[in-house]
């Protein structure tokens, strides 16, 4: 008891302090790491001028766009999804950047303006396009839709979306109008331009090519290269990216895998020889779906074509390889038919999707047929009566082949009818009055069933490829080991440069988002684990990390070395030439001939005999030298030049006045604004793209 009492007396204060600290620590932990954490992970996928786009909002927008896209393309592939993600991001950028501009300039679109753009005397082109039928704007239908919006939520939502779209379009139009109105090209500058371009020069020159000095004799240092980059930062601006070197271990099917596929195919082939429902059999068992149509003999595009197209009906050819498939081809039928048919038609739509009642449509089609056979103008009837907007402008004409994708009834009449025949044909779209205008090259057409099976890598083959990749990754953790193993194994690594944070595809590999994410989490020199990508296994080495800003020397060394070495050569050449008294003196000191260039124009940096040499062009019109003096040495693109203008001649150009030049220049700038203005605004905005951390 005395010991316990002693502890109480001596350490009571210390124990109280420890307990208090523990309680405070617990509370702080909850504050910083709990559900209401003050330092919880940000869910912003990006930020534009301080305005964040939250992950949930970004995903909602993506889902909306994907839902809209599925109406046109039910099965979205990864490439389409990636396009949608970029589209949604760019829409957010546009909203934030342009709204800032509108706010600064006081641009607003009132509700009255929007209403006028929809129901006013001169509606927006967007509205006109939505409510145009048979080439005519249907104002009555527009009025009906507006009236129905009050009682129909779906129509109300669609009309609301249309109003928002028109409002945004109006804001953009006002903004562009303001910016374009500010474009001004002074008349005095137009006069100066006309004067500068009014003559050409004939120039004599001496050129000392940089190639006359061996590269090996001109040494450059890293400090010189770095200084060049700093002095020319605009030339070396880069976005954030990664560079990787990678090895692909393909799970390529072996001979054993091919033998297994052939064995399976032989069993199916025996069944195909006796089956009656060939279409159903092929669709159940083949990797090549059955095409229940004919193909003109000369249009067939298959391997072993000559052997297949000449098969008797019921006979089979194979097996043969078609890319990664092993195939048997069976001749199902053969007919004589034209390889091309030209028809014209008038559609009388029927059915529940906006057409006439069936009996009414049939009577109208029969009446049109009577009129056509009685000599009525077919084209005029198409314009007046046809419900097929896709062929109105061509007089109802279509050209078909045996492999064309048309509804069967329409196609059968075109192929099997006779030239000049006119008939009413019913399809799922309604009643067609069809006239066969021409049939060419009547000959054999074939219907073929293809029983094909892909040769896939077996489990054993896949395991062997994965084992090889794993062994390489486990043994070679460093860049030196990676490169040594590549050389010793005589392997062929590939390089992926400029891999961006939101890339989903790497050329040569395909869909590889996990590999891209690894590249942005890894350090330079890291070697990856094995990535499983379809039928490939990949091991990668991260060779370069580029931050947004100025490119590092290692990434642009060859380009910078060439420029710095060229400049140092120019200094040597200029020093050798010294003070220039005449072209002959420059020629003797450099052992280069005096040459001549004609038609040098101030308007063009290209000189016919020299190429792209803007400094030489500019020097040719230097008033301080004129035709009396020899120029100082000029550091050009291909060498150092000394020039003397022999004469100036009037340039052959159409007569113009300053106002015309002024208007043409202003118009060219205004035309550029439509496409380039937003890109300029993007560069001037503070944009943070964090999407790579979430996707």
Please explain how this structure is put together.
With 695 residues, this protein is of the alpha+beta class. The strands form eight sheets. Strands 8, 9, 10, 11, 12 and 13 form a six-stranded antiparallel sheet that branches. A four-stranded antiparallel sheet has the order 20-5-24-23. The chain is extended. Mean pLDDT is 87; it is low at 1-8 and 30-39.
Task: Give a quick set of tags describing it.
single chain; 695 residues; alpha+beta; 6-stranded antiparallel β-sheet; 4-stranded antiparallel β-sheet; 22 helices; 46% helix; 23% strand; disordered N terminus
Q: What integer value in Å does the Rg equal?
A: 38 Å
Which shape, going by the Cα principal axes? extended
Q: Which parts are unreliable, with pLDDT below 50 for 5 consecutive residues or more?
A: 1-8, 30-39
Number of strand elements = 25
Strand content: 15-25%
Q: Quote the average pLDDT.
A: 87
The helix content is 40-55%
Pairing-aware structural class of the strands and helices? alpha+beta
Outline the fold blueprint.
Blueprint lengths: L1 H32 L10 E5 L2 E4 H16 L7 H28 L5 H9 L5 H6 L1 E2 L2 E2 L1 H10 L4 H29 L5 H10 L2 E11 L12 H10 L5 E2 L2 E10 L4 H18 L5 H8 L9 E2 L8 H5 L6 E7 L2 E25 L8 H16 L4 H8 L11 E4 L7 H9 L5 E6 L2 E25 L4 H17 L3 H10 L5 E6 L5 E2 L3 E2 L1 H9 L9 E3 L2 E11 L2 E2 L2 H25 L5 H8 L3 E8 L4 E2 L3 E2 L1 H7 L13 E2 L3 E12 L7 H27 L2 E3 L6
Antiparallel strand pairs: 1-2, 1-25, 3-4, 5-20, 5-24, 6-19, 7-14, 7-18, 8-13, 9-10, 10-11, 10-13, 12-13, 15-16, 17-18, 21-22, 23-24
């Amino acid at each position: 008891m005395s010991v316990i009492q002693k502890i109480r007396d001596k350490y009571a204060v210390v124990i109280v302090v420890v307990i208090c600290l523990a309680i405070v620590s617990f509370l702080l932990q909850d504050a910083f790491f709990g559900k209401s954490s003050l330092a919880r992970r940000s869910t912003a996928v990006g930020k534009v001028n301080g305005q964040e786009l939250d992950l949930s909002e970004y995903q909602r927008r993506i889902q909306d766009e994907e839902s809209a896209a599925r109406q046109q393309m039910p099965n979205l592939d990864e490439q389409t999804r990636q396009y949608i993600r970029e589209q949604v991001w760019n829409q957010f950028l546009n909203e934030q950047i342009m709204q800032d501009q509108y706010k600064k300039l006081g641009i607003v679109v009132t509700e009255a303006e929007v209403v006028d753009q929809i129901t006013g005397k001169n509606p927006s082109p967007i509205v006109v396009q939505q409510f145009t039928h048979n080439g005519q704007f249907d104002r009555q239908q527009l009025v009906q839709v507006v009236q129905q919006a009050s009682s129909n939520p779906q129509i109300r939502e669609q009309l609301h979306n249309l109003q928002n779209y028109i409002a945004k379009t109006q804001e953009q139009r006002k903004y562009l109008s303001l910016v374009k109105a500010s474009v001004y090209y002074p008349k005095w500058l137009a006069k100066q331009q006309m004067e500068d371009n009014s003559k050409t020069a004939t120039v004599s020159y001496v050129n000392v090519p940089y190639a006359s000095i061996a590269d090996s004799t001109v040494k450059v240092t890293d400090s010189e290269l770095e200084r060049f980059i700093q002095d020319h930062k605009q030339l070396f601006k880069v976005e954030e990216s990664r560079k990787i070197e990678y090895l692909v271990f393909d799970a390529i099917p072996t001979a054993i895998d091919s033998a297994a596929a052939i064995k399976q195919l032989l069993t199916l082939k025996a069944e195909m020889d006796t089956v009656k429902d060939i279409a159903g059999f092929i669709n159940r068992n083949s990797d090549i779906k059955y095409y229940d149509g004919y193909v003109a003999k000369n249009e067939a595009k298959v391997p072993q074509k000559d052997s297949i197209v000449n098969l008797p009906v019921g006979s089979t050819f194979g097996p043969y390889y078609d890319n990664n498939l092993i195939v048997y081809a069976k001749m199902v039928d053969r007919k004589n038919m034209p390889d091309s048919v030209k028809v014209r038609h008038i559609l009388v739509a029927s059915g529940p999707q906006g057409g006439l009642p069936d009996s009414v449509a049939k009577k109208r089609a029969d009446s049109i047929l009577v009129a056509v056979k009685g000599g009525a103008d077919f084209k005029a009837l198409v314009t007046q009566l046809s419900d097929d907007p896709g062929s109105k402008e061509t007089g109802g004409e279509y050209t078909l082949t045996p492999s064309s994708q048309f509804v069967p009834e329409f196609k059968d009449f075109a192929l099997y009818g006779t030239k000049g025949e006119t008939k009413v044909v019913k399809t799922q779209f309604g009643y067609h009055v069809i006239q066969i205008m021409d049939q060419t090259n009547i000959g054999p057409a074939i219907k073929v069933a293809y029983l094909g099976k892909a040769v896939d890598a077996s489990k054993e083959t896949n395991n062997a490829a994965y084992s090889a990749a794993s062994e390489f990754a486990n043994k070679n953790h460093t860049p030196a080991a990676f490169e040594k193993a590549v050389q010793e194994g005589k392997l062929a690594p590939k390089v992926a440069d400029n891999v961006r944070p939101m890339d989903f595809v790497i050329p040569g590999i395909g869909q590889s988002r996990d590999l891209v994410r690894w590249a942005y989490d890894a350090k330079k020199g890291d070697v990856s684990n094995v990535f499983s990508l379809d039928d490939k296994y990949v091991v990668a080495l991260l060779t370069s990390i580029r931050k947004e800003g100025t490119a590092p020397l290692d990434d642009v060394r060859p380009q910078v070395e060439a420029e710095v070495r060229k400049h140092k050569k120019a200094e040597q050449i200029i020093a050798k030439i010294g003070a220039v008294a005449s072209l002959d003196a420059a020629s003797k000191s450099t052992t280069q001939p005096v040459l001549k260039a004609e038609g040098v124009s101030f308007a063009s940096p290209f000189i016919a005999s020299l190429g792209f040499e803007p400094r030489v062009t500019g020097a040719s019109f230097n008033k301080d030298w004129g035709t009396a003096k020899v120029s100082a040495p000029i550091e050009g693109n291909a060498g150092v030049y000394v020039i003397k203008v022999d004469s100036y001649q009037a340039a052959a150009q159409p007569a113009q006045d300053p106002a015309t030049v002024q208007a043409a220049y202003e118009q060219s700038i205004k035309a550029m604004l439509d496409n380039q203005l937003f890109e300029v605004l993007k560069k001037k905005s503070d944009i943070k793209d964090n999407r790579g951390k979430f996707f």
